[in-house]
Amino acid sequence: MILRVILTVILLCIATCHSLEKGDGFQVFRVLPTTNQQLLQMIRLFETADTDRADFWHAPSVVNGTVDIMVAPEHTGQFQKYLEKHGYTYQIAIQDLRTLLIEKEGNISTHSTDDAFFMKRLHDDVGFHSRLRMGEYYSYSVLSTWLQRIAENMPDIAKLIKVGTTIEGRDILGLKFGKDTPDKKVVVIDAGIHAREWAAIHTASYFINLIVNSREGDPQIQNYLDNIVLYIIPVLNPDGYEYTRTDKTNPRARMWRKSRSPKACAFDGVRNSCCMGVDLNRNFDFRFSEIGASRYPCSEIYHGPSAFSEPESKAYSQFLASLKGRLEAYITLHSYSQLWIYSYSHRKFTYAPDIDETRRVAAKAVQELGRMYGTKYRHGTGPEIIYAFSGGSTDWAKETLKIKYSYTIELRPGYEEWNGFVLDKNQLIPTAKETWAGVTVVLDEVTNQWKSSKNRESELSRIRQEKCSDRLSGCAYWLQSSPNICRISQSTMIRDCAKTCDLCHMITV
Ligand SMILES: [Zn+2]
């Protein structure tokens, strides 16, 4: 508590802050904790800091591991003094974030008139209905309309699904690919649970675009459509995403991470602080609130009042649970750091029983991803490669639904890059392409395993048919005189009268 008071006081607004123009002067500090004490201090700050003042882009994880923090203009002076006072090694990685946003994303359309034109084109141009120009960001309404148009025009391969409704009343939409039969395995891919991670939303949209436009000439995609059921939900947190688009050059809006749930308050040691939003990826019922999450509503990692308190996470967990038993892989796309994360992330060296298989496929996926452009990913559990956290969707899915392959992917750039969430637009398509290459490793595993189990089944069925005969000649007579004999003496009848009793499918081979 004392530390929190000190930190809060340190980050209090200086007198000149109100003269700054909205969004001017946001800086990103790269801090290097070099001792255990500094690391613990940074972790404490990460868990308690108000997002409005200090927003962690790259969380503290290990001694000598960099921490990236976006600091609001009215607090940069005090923050710098604080770092110097405590002997931190640091540099200012981004001098003026607003300028960088204008430079990198300045031509991104967030105007409703542009959206209206795009929607009109989407509606009128029948030949264009399935193709979205990639390398761009789109509003949620454009993305939703696009999903609807695909489902309307390609009912043979895609079906529109509604996972739930957000706190602000938006439908959380996705597409279901492939013909569903009860024996098929299911894969779910989502993105955008964290609002500011636009590259993840673009990547999921790219996957959809690729599937609907390349399927005819791409045997691999056709193979997936024939053999698995694939769900893609490109924006799990549409309220947050739309909020990040309200002012494209204001870091306070653009760098919003949470949902847009109503204000909650908590006493932070100095005052009663009230803020909107919950980190939905800390709100799942897996070791809720244990670690890497915050009970302060103004923190960017605020876990909410209780597990599944939020309509988005609750609805999504119910959707995933409805697929239990068939859901073989679950992949959630985030940015950034170039990591392929698997369970469990709340504590080091805590794994599910099938960790060897999980790790094998992750290693293969990372290798395949890197083959495209040489991008280097690391794989491991949260505490092994980034930091410990609880309440995340993949850990919940792994533990509760026993999903074989449950992965969180942190996309480009690497954690050593200084531009973080502001990915250069010319990196968007390569990011999506290489991620698809990694994801296909998981899709191939699920598809091939299902196909080989089908082959095994049909081979067994063939052998059973070959062996399907009566060992004794009196079977028909027995059945006539005792109609229930096949059921009552089943094991004997499988051996002696399998054909007459229609029990060939139960012959042991
Ligand atoms: Zn994220």
UniProtKB/TrEMBL annotation:
Entry-linked SMART domains:
ShKT, Zn_pept
Q: Name one GO biological process term.
A: proteolysis
**Is-annotated flag, keyword Disulfide bond?**
yes
Catalytic residue positions: E410
Signal sequence span is 1-19
A Pfam family per the record: Propep_M14
Q: Which PROSITE patterns match?
A: PEPTIDASE_M14, SHKT
Q: Which domain of life is it from?
A: Eukaryota
Question: Which residues does the UniProt record annotate as the domain Peptidase M14?
Answer: 136-446
Q: Which family does it belong to?
A: Belongs to the peptidase M14 family.
This protein's name: Zinc carboxypeptidase A 1
